[in-house]
């Protein structure tokens, strides 16, 4: 289960794709993905196999707006970025993550969610605002963080007024396993 409650999970927050530019941004991401794959000398089938999806699913990533962020979890996105020789920030936004954006670990994000809940309400209210289930992530952030879609981090970080790209920076800082 991907933790999504309803909808696409939101695109708010710093570095988000909200507003009228979302369709254009998704189209740009599709073109960027295809270009990166070709530059890396990879074919769609081989790349799909390496990240654990079908070739048809991979081709959807290059042809369906929003599919990259909506259908792959962070583990898959990280593998894809490594195989394409780019950072997660560049893969998802077309830009490297600026130096001032601090690392945001899964544990730190869970801590910030708990602090928010202490001051502003219950978990159900935050889940309704973000459109994402939070319980599993709060129980085991280090494991559950990797299973989340980027929409989860965009929405939760927007609500907490954090830069979601800090999560990407954290993921980029971890060596290959």
CATH fold title of the largest domain: 434 Repressor (Amino-terminal Domain)
The CATH class of the largest domain: Mainly Alpha
Q: Helical residue percent? A: 55-70%
Tally of DSSP β-strands: 0
- Rg over C-alpha atoms, rounded to the nearest angstrom: 16 Å
Structurally, how many domains make up the residues? 2
Uncertain regions: pLDDT < 50 for 5+ in a row?
A: 1-21
What proportion strand? Answer: under 5%
Main sheet record? none
- What is the mean predicted local confidence, pLDDT? 86
Number of helices: 12
CATH H-level superfamily title of the largest domain: lambda repressor-like DNA-binding domains
Order of helices and strands: HHHHHHHHHHHH
Summing up helix and strand content along with how strands pair, one would put the structural category as: mainly alpha
Overall geometry: elongated
**Architecture of the largest domain, CATH level 2?**
Orthogonal Bundle
Description:
Helices cover 61% and strands 0% of the residues. The protein is an all-alpha fold. It has 2 domains: 19-93, 434 Repressor (Amino-terminal Domain) (Orthogonal Bundle); 106-173, Orthogonal Bundle (434 Repressor (Amino-terminal Domain)).
Question: What's a quick, concise take on this entry?
Answer:
By secondary structure, the chain is mainly α.
Which structural traits does this protein have?
177 residues; mainly alpha; 434 Repressor (Amino-terminal Domain); 2 domains; disordered N terminus
